Amino acid sequence: MYLKGLSVRGIRNYSRLDVSLSPGLNLFFGDNAKGKTNLLEAACFLGSLRSFRGVKPAALLSWGAKEGRVSGEVAGAGVAKKIAVGLSEGKRRVTVDGKKPGSAREYLLVLKVSSFSPEDLFLVKEYPAHRRRFLDRSIFHLHPGYLDLANRYAAAVRQINAAFKAGEAGVIGSYEELILPLAAEVAQKRREQADALAPLATELYDRVLGGGRLETVYRTAAKGGSRQELESSYRALLEKKRPEGLRRGCLMAGPHTDDLAVTLSGRDMKLSASRGQSRLAMLALVLADAELYHAERGEYPVLLLDDVASELDVRRRDALMEYITGRGQALLTATEPALLDGREGQTFRVETNPEGEALLSFQVKRK
């Protein structure tokens, strides 16, 4: 899977851009604050309908612009599809081969991107919701039906939360019975995905990135391995937590309260990890997700690696570049072109004109 080209209109400081991409390494280099990250953000938005900066879609529009658009041609597995996402009046409009897809799921399955950026430190250091979303996206691209399950569970949580806020104690028990099978299935699938990612992330951190034993475990208050056991455990938890839920006005137990614990040498990284360790752990998780996708689908997702080498020593940087070379397409940013020295790929200099608009200039292909 790779992007043959990327077109951007009215996004961040790109008023107009059309760039052809290599199926391998593509490096965008230049001084800071010129638009390198903005380009990768546009590619992330095209594939996932989200910004890795965690902002709302409307924030991607160029200053003063009322609409914007990102489009590209995706090749892989013997097929090619053209996808596009437009922004206007705060709304997204997506197309696949020029037509509106039947669902968001149909669109999102065309292109999988796995992104790493400095802004993504929250994956390791901040709130559990970020790690739950990481797991959910990882599951979805291997099991598309999971999106419907996750949406049904989220809708059920909103419904029962409304009952808690209204103090409707008489109906809460009935709502809990409806949510139990959904909760058990979500928790089971997340745990299975976490268990599949864990050995890959551990190996990547140790063999490629170096620095200790990284471990990831899905943490849930519910006990048991089977769906029936999880459902029974959740039933007991919901009953126990119901008085607290009535006081606080929300459901106090369920997969929406679970976490993906990330530890380094046995210590919780949320509490003890340095910035550098957190970046390496986050990168290991992103690469593990790509490896798992490849193992299941026979192709790699598109890697978006923003400023990936800025805090890596020479050994780790070389090990990373050696690892990603030959593993599908990667779009990378750096301040210097040397990141691709000795490796085949394309390099582009990112500059700005006097108005602050980003411009690309193609550099000589490196081998």
Structure description:
This protein has ten helices and 14 strands. With 367 residues, the chain is an alpha/beta fold. The chain has two domains: 1-112 and 301-367, Rossmann fold (3-Layer(aba) Sandwich); 120-297, RecF/RecN/SMC, N-terminal domain (Glutathione S-transferase Yfyf (Class Pi), Chain A, domain 2, Up-down Bundle), CATH 1.20.1050. A hairpin with a 2-residue loop joins strand 5 and strand 6. Helix 4 (128-142) crosses helix 6, helix 5 packs across helix 6 (169-209) and helix 6 crosses helix 9. The longest helix is centred in the middle third of the chain and has 41 residues, at 169-209. It is globular and about 65 Å long. The model has no long low-confidence stretch (mean pLDDT 91).
User: How many distinct folded domains?
Assistant: 2
Strand element count: 14
CATH topology of the largest domain: Rossmann fold
CATH architecture assignment of the largest domain: 3-Layer(aba) Sandwich
Beta-strand proportion: 15-25%
Can you write the helix and strand succession as a string?
EEEHEEEHEHHHHEHEEHHEHEEE
Largest sheet: 6 strands, mixed
> Which structural category do the helix and sheet elements fall into?
alpha/beta
**Helical coverage, percent range:** 40-55%
The CATH C-level class name of the largest domain: Alpha Beta
Q: Compute the number of helices.
A: 10
Distance between the termini: 22 Å
Summed over residues and divided by their number, the pLDDT gives a mean of 91
Over all CA atoms, what is the radius of gyration? 22 Å
Described by the principal axes of the CA atoms, the overall outline is: globular
Low-confidence stretches: none
Could you state the CATH homologous superfamily of the largest domain? P-loop containing nucleotide triphosphate hydrolases
